[in-house]
Amino acid sequence: MRVNSITKKYSGSVVLKEISFDFKQGEIVGLVGSNGAGKSTLMKIIAQTIQTFDGSVEDNNHVGYLIEEPKLYSNKTGLAHLFYFSEIYGNKFKLSEYEELLKGLQLFDVLNKKVKEYSLGMRQKLGIVISLLNKPSYVVLDEPTNSMDIETSLEVLQQLRKIANEWNVGVLISSHKLEDIETICDRVLFLEKGTILGEQQISKRSPYILKLVFDNPTDLATFIEYQEFGSIIHSSERTIQIETTAENSEIFQFLNRLGIRLIDFTAEKKTLRNVYMSKFRGEYHESATRS
């Protein structure tokens, strides 16, 4: 799927501005941003529930979606919902095709209960299954683990990963639970004030952000000239931040060989929360591990 230069205005106010990105089937892409950043609007455009906008979306004719709370009928059973929505999509519901997914989501044994007996988390999970009933190439999920505890969230994330891998479905997911995004996604798009600020690949081997404070500018310049540990994030007169997967011991051995003395050193594991705070606040707010 390709999103091309999407711009959306409401009453003259720009909600989305020149948004462009792509993602493929089998890939899980996270969409992260503060409230009002434009995430839900972008997802509605991709799902074709918003029709008026500037720009274009390619290959979005077969998209399932769960945006905001699922629209369910309290007096109908879970199973009745699956038959009903399948019929709307022009399909005949076959329980055997979704049995494994329903069991993985702990819904199979409650399908004959009315939705009014479901918890909020169970309703959300039923909404996720409904979003897949039209056998989509892509699915758009806005806060899919909302109202779920940690264990239930992990259960849902595992099933979404399985769907992407085994059903070859591309998944676009937004969540305020950054740990969920980090657990499931292949990469993340950061959206703020209707603009994509950047993109982050999710690495299974988490790098560290190192902050080194040198005794003098000459030592800093020497370190920059010879270091091959990683990319430089920021540097000032005597301070540098680098991103690296190197061990701290390697850094200090290198400094000793150069005869460089540090005044201060901090190592902070790079998490998605760190990246988010850095992009939106310009600094890292998580606690650092000092060596």
Secondary structure elements and pairings:
Elements: E1 2-10, E2 13-22, E3 28-32, H1 39-46, E4 54-58, E5 63-66, H2 78-88, H3 95-104, H4 120-131, E6 138-142, H5 150-167, E7 170-174, H6 178-184, E8 187-192, E9 195-201, E10 208-214, H7 217-226, E11 230-235, E12 239-244, H8 248-258, E13 262-269, H9 272-281, E14 289-290
Parallel strand pairs: 3-7, 3-8, 5-6, 6-7
Antiparallel strand pairs: 1-2, 1-4, 8-9, 10-12, 10-13, 11-12, 13-14
Question: What does this 3D model show about the protein?
Answer:
This protein has helices at residues 39-46, 78-88, 95-104, 120-131, 150-167, 178-184, 217-226, 248-258, 272-281; strands spanning 2-10, 13-22, 28-32, 54-58, 63-66, 138-142, 170-174, 187-192, 195-201, 208-214, 230-235, 239-244, 262-269, 289-290. The longest helix has 18 residues, at 150-167. 33% of the residues lie in helices and 29% in strands. The protein has two domains: 2-201, Rossmann fold (3-Layer(aba) Sandwich), CATH 3.40.50; 208-269, 2-Layer Sandwich (Alpha-Beta Plaits), CATH 3.30.70. The strands form three sheets. A six-stranded mixed beta sheet has the order 5-6-7-3-8-9, with helices on both faces. Strands 11-12-10-13-14 form a five-stranded antiparallel beta sheet. A hairpin with a 2-residue loop joins strand 8 and strand 9.
